Recover the amino acids of this structure.
């Protein structure tokens, strides 16, 4: 709790002051900074106590003299309004009215502590401790048992201040940890418009910084304008998407807010309560706000029991205090009374007062103790103090060093102005009769949470933790993308692109997979890429394999036909030896296509290009020699050219084919020796697969192989074109021309298609070029001959051959 609106900074110090008595007095100023004290009715108490306690500060004045007198200031009555505050003269206050139960209980806790200490021979032996208590009525902003403002921890500004309640810094940090614990990232806040609220929410925001928690809204309310402020705040809560609301306010302001929410039927919000209202009996017993307040989770001043205190309260009688209760008969009693005043099961504020008295007593004990107990005070006067010679500075030094164990077994000491942070975590549960009850569900030691999550009853009435987020957490496989102009808690979820993954909920970035891995279909994990190559069991591989095998079968069938009809004019007239060699080379061309299919290996990469280059050179060489023979035969029939054919006899024909082919063999040998194709995993290929291919270590070698085939093909085409119209019924030149046109067209189209095709598709393009050109040669050269041999045998005669 902090300063009230318009009040000076709250402070308290342990002061040495002189009362009207002759005994020295230690004044503990314990007056709260704002209208502290639970504003609850005293009907239950007044049935067995006096009906009138007086209405002026002077009328509540009790205490006795002693060796050392501890003074206390408590806000026993409501703070009266100021009248005629013109700032030209001291303000005038109305008389104090309305006795408050909790401050009254604290008064008797102080009295009980003093009497308990006096009975204890181990504390201040030989020194009688007594008290004097006055009602401050909320007129002055001093307090130590409820002063929680973080500003009071500043020893430079408040060097003499000590308190028995933790700084608000710790409860704000505790609330931040609760938000993180339950994954609440979208929280609304309503705070008191003073130091208490502003410093608390500032600490809360510092604690959640960088954790992904955002404030959906921040409303400030003031006690002077609470009705309007509560309406405004309730409207904000009603329209906000935040389901968890943090409230740092005084309980009377919370009551007004809850009443406004009840009017709007807003009953689905989870409230986080500060210690200023988390244990308020007034709120717990208010039926009008029952549906709104159910499930409140709050931080509370630590609770404790004071042994013997309940009996002490029940033994109070007006006859023992005639000075203060002059209008009582003296026979009133609290024996057997069960009410707020006599409830000592969970003492909070009163226990803070109890600790303050004990801290003062132990400081005095240390101050008055002699180093040598056997020596007399006269012999030890320089080191042994007297209760009649207490100095302010020396007592504060001993108070700084206080360290003792309370009757409860709790270790107590100061850390500067503060005590170690300790809180209760409480929950407002709905009991079987429909009322709200305060239930302890955990505790806080320092910043360590001890919480029984399963015992919490949330605002929904169930054990299911409420969800309060601006945007649902992005699932694995997506990343967060902040919305422009909105808090970081508000975002969209963008799917990771292929090759990137996010395997956590709420990922800010997608992570790219390593080069040998790829993202799974959900983009949640990197999996090894599948090795991709043109295999025999895939559709494209099956089609190409079928085409190659069919070519081999057809070529073999033509070979058998030519072998069976070897002596017929059609076979013999067209250089049967070269025809058989051509058929053999075509069969090799079809077979070499199969070497390109399947998983690339060292031997297949070496063999496939060499087999392809040599087979096609052999094939084109045969066609070239055939064309030359046709031209030579025609020229030899002319006068004066009778000896031309002797230069192109069978031996020369075979030698020419061997010569042209051997050049390609030499090219392939040099290429494969220096820089052969090798199996290669193409990791740069985008996709879920790694392309396994035969990489061309030397593109020059491959280009030379293709270039030589192209050179022979172009030369053959030129010669065939020149001989296409020679007068011969069985002239092959025109068929060779057609076949070479197809051959050249296929391989010219092959080059750009091969370069632009990715992965295994480049292999498929090369196989298709091999099969297309091979089928073109086979059909153009041998289909007409087979047609005559099988279907027009009457034309397969020498007469028909020489008909022209």
């Amino acid at each position: 709790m902090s300063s009230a609106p318009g009040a000076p900074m709250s402070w308290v110090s342990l002061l040495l002051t002189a009362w009207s008595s002759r005994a020295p007095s230690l004044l503990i100023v314990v007056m709260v900074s704002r209208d502290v004290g639970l504003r609850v009715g005293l009907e239950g108490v007044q049935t067995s106590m006096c009906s009138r306690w007086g209405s002026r500060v002077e009328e509540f004045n009790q205490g006795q003299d002693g060796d050392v007198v501890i003074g206390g200031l408590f806000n026993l009555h409501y703070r009266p309004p100021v009248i005629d505050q013109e700032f030209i003269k001291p303000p005038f206050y109305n008389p104090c009215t309305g006795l408050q139960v909790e401050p009254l209980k604290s008064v008797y806790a102080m009295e009980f502590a003093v009497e308990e200490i006096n009975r204890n021979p181990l504390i201040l032996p030989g020194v009688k401790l007594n008290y004097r208590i006055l009602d401050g009525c909320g007129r002055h902003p001093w307090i130590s048992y409820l002063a929680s403002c973080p500003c009071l921890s500043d020893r430079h500004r408040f060097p003499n201040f000590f308190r028995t309640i933790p700084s608000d810094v710790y409860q704000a940090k505790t609330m931040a940890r609760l938000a993180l614990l339950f994954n609440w990232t979208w929280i609304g806040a309503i705070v008191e418009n003073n130091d208490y609220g502003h410093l608390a929410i500032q600490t809360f925001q510092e604690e959640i910084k960088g954790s992904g928690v955002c404030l959906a809204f921040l409303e400030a309310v003031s006690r002077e304008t609470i009705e309007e402020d509560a309406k405004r705040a309730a409207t904000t809560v009603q329209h906000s998407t935040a389901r968890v609301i943090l409230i740092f306010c005084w309980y009377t302001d919370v009551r007004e807010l809850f009443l406004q929410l009840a009017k709007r039927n807003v009953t689905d919000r989870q409230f986080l309560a500060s210690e200023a209202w988390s244990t308020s009996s007034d709120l717990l017993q208010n039926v009008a706000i029952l549906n709104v307040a159910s499930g409140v989770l709050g931080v509370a001043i630590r609770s404790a029991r004071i042994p013997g205190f309940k009996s002490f309260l029940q033994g109070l009688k007006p006859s023992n205090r005639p000075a203060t209760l002059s209008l009582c008969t003296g026979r009133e009693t609290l024996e057997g009374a069960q009410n707020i005043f006599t409830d000592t099961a969970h003492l909070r504020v009163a226990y803070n007062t109890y600790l303050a008295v004990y801290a003062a007593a132990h400081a005095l004990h240390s101050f008055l103790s002699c180093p040598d107990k056997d020596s007399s005070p006269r012999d030890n006067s320089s080191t042994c103090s007297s209760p009649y010679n207490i100095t302010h500075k020396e007592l504060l030094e001993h108070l700084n060093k206080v360290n003792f164990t309370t009757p409860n077994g709790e270790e107590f000491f100061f850390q500067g102005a503060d005590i170690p942070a300790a809180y209760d975590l409480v929950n407002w549960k709905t009991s079987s009769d429909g009322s709200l009850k305060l239930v302890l569900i955990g505790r806080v030691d320092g910043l360590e949470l001890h919480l029984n999550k399963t015992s919490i009853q949330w605002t929904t009435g169930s054990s299911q933790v409420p969800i309060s987020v601006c945007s649902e957490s992005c699932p694995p496989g997506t990343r967060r993308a902040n919305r422009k102009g909105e808090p970081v808690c508000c975002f969209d979820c963008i799917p990771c692109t292929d090759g990137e993954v996010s395997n956590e909920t709420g990922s800010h970035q997608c992570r790219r997979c390593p080069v040998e891995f790829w993202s799974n279909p959900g983009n949640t994990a990197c999996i090894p890429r599948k090795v991709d190559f043109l295999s025999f069991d895939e559709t494209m591989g099956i089609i190409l394999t079928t085409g190659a095998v069919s070519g081999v079968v057809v070529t073999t069938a033509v070979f058998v036909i030519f072998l069976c009809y070897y002596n017929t004019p059609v076979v013999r007239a067209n250089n049967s030896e070269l025809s058989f060699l051509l058929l053999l080379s075509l069969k090799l061309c079809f077979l070499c296509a199969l070497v390109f299919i399947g998983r690339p290996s060292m031997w297949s990469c070496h063999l496939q290009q060499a087999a392809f280059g040599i087979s096609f050179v052999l094939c084109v060489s045969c066609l070239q020699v055939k064309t030359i023979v046709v031209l030579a035969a025609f020229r030899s029939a002319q006068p004066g050219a009778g000896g031309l054919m002797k230069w192109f006899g069978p031996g020369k024909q075979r030698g020419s084919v061997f010569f042209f082919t051997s050049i390609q063999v030499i090219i392939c040998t040099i290429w494969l020796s220096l820089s052969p194709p090798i199996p290669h995993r193409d990791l740069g290929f985008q996709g879920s697969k790694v392309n396994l291919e035969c990489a061309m270590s030397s593109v020059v070698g491959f280009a030379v192989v293709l270039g030589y085939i192209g050179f022979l093909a172009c030369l053959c085409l030129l010669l065939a074109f020149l001989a296409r119209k020679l007068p011969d019924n069985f002239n092959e030149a025109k068929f060779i021309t057609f076949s070479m046109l197809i051959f050249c067209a296929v391989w010219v189209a092959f080059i750009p298609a091969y370069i632009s095709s990715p992965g295994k598709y480049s292999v498929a393009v090369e196989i298709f070029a091999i099969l297309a050109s091979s089928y073109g040669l086979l059909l153009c050269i041998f289909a007409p001959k087979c047609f005559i041999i099988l279907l027009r045998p009457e034309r397969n005669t020498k007469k028909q051959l020489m008909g022209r």
About this structure: Residues 539-637+656-801 form a domain with the Rhopdopsin 7-helix transmembrane proteins fold (CATH 1.20.1070.10).
